[in-house]
Amino acid sequence: MTTTKGEETRRNILHSSLAMASRLGLDGLSIGTVAKQVGMSKSGLFAHFESKEDLQLKVLETGVDHFIRKVVTPALRQPRGEPRVRALFENWLTWSEYLPGGCPFIAAAAEVDDRPGPLREFLASSQKDWLGVLAQAARICMEEGHFRSDLEAEQFGYHLNGILLAHHHCERLLRDPEAEERARASFEELMAGARPA
Amino acid sequence: MTTTKGEETRRNILHSSLAMASRLGLDGLSIGTVAKQVGMSKSGLFAHFESKEDLQLKVLETGVDHFIRKVVTPALRQPRGEPRVRALFENWLTWSEYLPGGCPFIAAAAEVDDRPGPLREFLASSQKDWLGVLAQAARICMEEGHFRSDLEAEQFGYHLNGILLAHHHCERLLRDPEAEERARASFEELMAGARPA
What we know:
2 copies of one chain form a homodimer.
Chain A: H1 5-24, H2 31-38, H3 42-46, H4 52-76, H5 82-95, H6 104-112, H7 118-143, H8 153-172, H9 179-194
Helix pairs in contact in A: 1-2, 1-4, 1-6, 4-5, 4-7, 5-7, 6-7, 7-8, 8-9
């Protein structure tokens, strides 16, 4: 597949914007600030994106693409069951340091959760997908006998996601040097409670 | 203690601003928007606050006052041990619905975590206090024999805070009707793992 110059430019804009959004939130992205960051004119940028909201939405979509490539896909290459759950957890920790301001979805969630519209819809739906990936990984653990058969897979996913949110908070706001250790300890507690008695 | 008219005005401004910050984040507060909200002139508002940052800081301080009054103090009136931990958890759930946009600290954390300065410092330090309250409540449970003696109290507090963050996410972004049920299930798992074998 060949990539045209226009597609490449567009991809560079989106990548820069995603890094900006991780630090400044979606609201930190405007056609003006992004144009400055990538060294283009505003009208040059408008050739790629219809509006600020269109840009913000495409940035979220780009973030989800990266997330799937860095967190989900490599975990699916691991053996079914516990190794896959561990890979999802570990890949997420790496993900949270991939962009300069941490996970862009956590920053965006705080911004859009009271603001109905396409950004909120897209973010909520991609977060539901992520919780679904975690629940499905737990279900496979049950099938493989790694987790007890009466586990509630959705609840496991929800709880695991909470450990990831706590990690982000601890790492980024508190700059706690033990952040990763704490996240791992919580994860092991959760795993221990999920295994057959 | 008598309250002067000026103090009352100031308190009203801060209360309105806190509600705004819960929806729009700290960055949604400007001298202009707040003046409009409370029906004052900008110069009238400047008589109370030196700058936008001063206003934002005072709003965070107001939030912490409310939090202590609504979450921490009533829990301290509960019997030592498990009832107190439960009260902290339940009061936090109530707290997260007290303001129109949910917990203002979670919104603020995403905004200031990459921005060194007094807002970040104040927020990080108050969050450390909160984690300290949770850890201390766990330590008392250990003393009372409600929790096992080899529990790591700090880790318990960290993990409990993660459950609260997950709840906020699930309730506000995903509007999951089972959000509270899920938070309670995670909490009970955490409690079960903390009790003596």
